[in-house]
Design a protein that fits this description.
The complex is a heterodimer of chains A (429) and B (390). Chain A has four helices and 28 strands. By secondary structure, chain A is mostly beta strands. Chain B has 390 residues and is mostly beta strands. Chain B is built from two helices and 19 strands. Chain B has helices at 4-23, 46-50, and strands at residues 39-40, 78-92, 95-113, 117-128, 131-141, 144-169, 173-194, 201-223, 226-242, 251-254, 258-266, 271-280, 299-308, 312-313, 316-317, 320-328, 340-352, 357-369, 374-388. The termini of chain B are close together. Classes of the chains: A mainly beta (429), B mainly beta (390). Chains A and B meet through helix 1, strand 1, strand 22 and strand 28 of A and helix 1, strand 2, strand 3, strand 5 and strand 6 of B. Strand 1 of chain A pairs parallel with strand 5 of chain B.
């Protein structure tokens, strides 16, 4: 009995002590103003102008191809200025000579007797389109051959031969169909449709195979279209009373536009159909003030490495623009480090991004200046401070690259915001 | 002669609380933990706590860490472990604060060595330096109003391992000495958090305490009804070494001399009265403390209590205890703050396994004040288990 009480009673009591010691401490918290002798930390916000931290800057383009946009652009008198944006979409469909279909439970392959009609459809990307009023969208035959190097002035731009359009923007053949777009129409559900009659469809099949051209008139507009698709209704030779529908996607598609994006003009350009990148070499200051400005008595400086950085952000002001390439819809702009800046435009980019932000289109048309803050990642800032030169070369680019037709631009008067805290070192009693 | 199996059983039981001890070796908390060198704590068990904190001069062998001579006369190996829970609330210049903690203030193992000698190894707390402060303010940053929260915290304290030896010279007199190996850790941290897209900032420093001190004590039992005892702790020097941070300061603190006098006497067959006093020379620490530490002064304390063991439950005695204490505190906010602590205590004990184990419980209600605008009240519960191997 004694052994029992000794062992189990003792173990139970010790167990209770061990469990109780695991209870979470509640640390006393002092009332305000009664800190036990410690001095308070001070947080300072420092704004540097471009001349104080930008060593070099350059704008490049050519980092994306039209195919990366994944869409077609149609524009009509979009933007203000001497040259509003115009854009036409081209598509070429491989209309077949034979058709495979099922009749009476068996599969048949027949030559096509005739085309009896069809419909061209395209999906409007509303959040990346803008229309000011009712817009007429016309579907034409393309009047001459073209390829996927076509531009507003040229139907083909190969290495060996360049051929200009007979009509800039794409030579128009016969009018095949028309549709009207009005975003105010509540019945509209984002799909544009051109009904093509039998004569027009037969012309597409019998023609030289140059495809279709979509152009816009009537209102200022810039549209982004995806999912271009042609439904062709045919009568097979072996079944005159049978109609078979064939859905075709383009064998080739492209859009042509005029004028070219304004990459010059002394602004930082990002993204756009030409895949612009703006490259900046930044340098952090060696020292920062040891206290907020205006503190009396004045204090000296501390090394930036010794200050505890809360935020380092590149501040850019969107350049307001009303031209045809202004952003429509939200653009995501990234900052990435150039791993080998001496290679210039050919330098590989670091992963992951060291900053980024989503920028609404309104920032580029608002009546007042707005400021976009690209916060530099703590890892980047740490690397810069560990480097003797305290520099980093960064690229501003769209993300994903090539996904934006619009061209966000920023004023070159960048600023660098450094928020840091001077924390007194804890001391012994 | 104690069998090896009993010794092994005692040591295994000692292992369990020792594991927790490594994680949480410190004592109760108070707003006064932030003042001077911290809040002074007493390495006593629940029996002593129930008697107002009287840690020496009690009849028979005793496993408190106050008097090295108290282990003299142990009939068998013994282990004492104590667990304490504190909860306090305070007001300082009209603002409220509260806190609580659970700690092991004492772990002590002792064993006879032959007929007259006893040796011991124990651990007890000395000062608690755990506190935290949190403040909020708003400021304009990055064009917006941001809430800034500062949290400044200190965690740690100082304790000591006691290597003790005592000699029973005859039936009435015993003497003991102890070597105190001071140990402890102090972690101090400042964190500023800014609401919004801002990284927090943190400054952290850690120091390790180390040092040596010495203790000596006597116990005299002139009659079967009276025991007197005295002890002195020569504080020694404690150094604080930074962990690894370049430029962090080192510190050196001369701990005070502490002198204890006490005794207990039997009044009637079932009643014991205990009384003790202590003086500590904390003022010698003033120059070593940082500027703005506030008052540092020498202190006196008086504590005592009554134990009555006439109550039995199933033929086992259940001692009941009441006590009280008045103690000056060495540190405060302002110069001449005159901080002091008063407490009322109560407790009871259970003798288990025919006296091979004692389970003691105490409850304490205390108050601290002195500086205008400051008052603090606390509740303390302690549980002790003393196991005597046979």
């Amino acid at each position: 009995m004694r052994r029992f009480l000794l062992s189990w009673g003792g173990a139970a009591a010790v167990g209770a002590m061990v469990l109780g010691a695991g209870c979470e401490d509640r640390v006393p918290t002092f009332p305000e103003g009664q800190l036990p002798g410690e001095t308070r930390a001070q947080t300072v916000e420092l704004l540097l102008s471009a001349s104080e931290f930008v060593l070099e800057d350059t704008v490049y383009d050519g980092f994306s191809r039209q195919t990366q946009l994944g869409a077609l652009v149609v524009a009509s008198d979009f933007g203000e200025g001497a040259e509003p944006l115009q854009a036409n979409a081209l598509g070429r469909f491989p209309l077949p000579d034979t058709v495979v279909y099922t009749r009476g439970g068996s599969t048949r392959s027949d030559s096509i007797l005739r085309y009896v009609g069809g419909e061209l459809t395209a999906v409007l990307q509303r959040d990346r389109s803008q229309v000011d009023g009712a817009l007429e969208l016309s579907l034409f035959e393309v009047g001459e051959a073209w390829d996927t190097t076509a531009t507003w002035q040229h139907a083909a731009r190969g290495d060996t031969a360049t051929r200009a359009w007979q009509q800039p923007g794409g030579t128009r053949g016969a009018l095949l169909a028309r549709t009207t777009l009005s975003l105010a129409d509540t019945a509209f559900r984002d799909t544009l449709r051109w009904a093509i009659d039998s004569v027009a469809m037969q012309r597409l099949a019998d023609g030289a195979g140059h495809g279709v051209l979509i152009s816009a008139d009537g209102a200022s507009a810039r549209l982004l279209l995806t999912g271009l698709s042609l439904r062709a209704d045919v009568r097979p030779a072996g079944g005159a009373d049978t109609t078979v529908s064939i859905t075709l996607t383009p064998a080739a598609q492209r859009f042509v536009f005029s004028p070219e994006p304004p990459l010059g003009g002394g602004a930082y350009a990002v993204a756009g159909i030409r895949g612009a990148r703006s490259v900046l070499t930044l340098r952090l200051p060696e020292n920062v003030p040891a206290c907020p400005p205006g503190t009396v008595p004045a204090c000296g400086t501390v090394r930036t490495q010794d200050a505890r950085l809360n935020q380092v952000a590149l501040l850019l002001t969107p350049e307001r623009t009303t031209d045809g390439f202004r952003p429509v819809g939200t653009a995501f702009v990234q900052l990435r480090r150039l791993l080998e800046p001496e290679l210039g435009r050919f330098s590989p980019l670091g992963v992951p991004p060291v900053g980024g932000d989503s920028i609404p289109a309104a920032s580029f048309v608002a009546p007042q200046d707005t400021t976009i803050a690209f916060q530099l990642s703590p890892d980047l800032v740490r690397r810069m401070l560990e480097d003797d030169t305290r520099t980093a070369t960064l690229a501003l680019l769209g993300s994903p690259e090539g996904a934006y037709f619009g061209l966000p631009r920023f004023r070159r008067d960048a600023r660098l915001r450094i928020v840091y805290t001077i924390v007194p070192a804890p001391t012994l009693p | 002669m104690t069998s090896p199996s009993k010794i092994i059983a005692t040591l295994l039981l000692a292992g369990a609380p020792a594991l927790s001890l490594g994680a949480a070796p410190l004592d109760a908390q108070s707003l006064l933990s932030s003042r001077g060198f911290g809040l002074v704590v007493d390495p006593v068990d629940a029996r002593a706590a129930g008697l107002g904190g009287t840690g020496l001069g009690l009849f028979g062998p005793n496993l408190s860490l106050v008097n090295p001579a108290s282990i003299a006369g142990l009939p068998a190996p013994a282990l004492a472990s104590s667990f304490r829970f504190d909860s306090f609330s305070a007001s300082l210049d009209g603002a409220e604060a509260s806190g609580g903690t659970a700690r092991f203030p004492l772990l002590h193992a002792a064993a006879p060595l032959g007929d007259r000698w006893s040796v011991s190894l124990g651990y007890g707390g000395l000062v608690d330096q755990t506190w935290a402060a949190q403040l909020e303010q708003t400021d304009t940053l990055a064009g917006d109003e941001a809430t800034i929260t500062d949290r400044i915290s200190s965690r740690g304290g100082l304790g000591h391992f006691r290597f003790g030896a005592a000699y029973q010279a005859g039936a009435r007199f015993a003497a003991g000495v102890g070597l105190d190996v001071y140990t402890g850790l102090l972690q101090r941290e400042s964190v500023r958090t800014i609401a919004g897209p801002f990284n927090p900032t943190r400054e952290f420093r850690q120091w390790s305490y180390s040092g040596l001190g010495y203790a000596a004590g006597v116990r005299w039992t002139p009659s079967e009804a009276l025991t007197l005892a005295g002890a002195v702790n020569l504080g020694g020097t404690v150094s604080a070494e930074p962990a690894d941070t370049a430029g962090a300061a080192t510190g050196e603190y001369t701990l005070p001399v502490r002198a204890h006098l006490g005794g207990s006497g039997r009044v009637g067959q079932n009643t014991l009265v205990a009384l003790s006093t202590e003086w500590a020379g904390w003022s010698g620490l003033a120059d070593a403390l940082s500027p703005g530490a506030g008052e540092t002064r020498d202190t006196w304390s008086v504590q005592g209590g009554v134990e009555w063991d006439a109550l039995t439950v199933r033929e086992r005695p259940v001692p009941l205890r009441v006590g009280g204490r008045y103690r000056q505190l060495p540190f405060g906010w302002a110069e001449e703050a005159g901080m002091a602590e008063r407490a009322l205590t109560a407790g009871l004990g259970l003798r288990l396994a025919g006296g091979a184990a004692n389970l003691d419980v105490s409850l304490e209600r205390g108050w601290r004040d002195g500086q205008p605008g400051f008052e603090e009240g606390y509740w303390r519960t302690m549980l002790s288990l003393n196991i005597l191997g046979r």
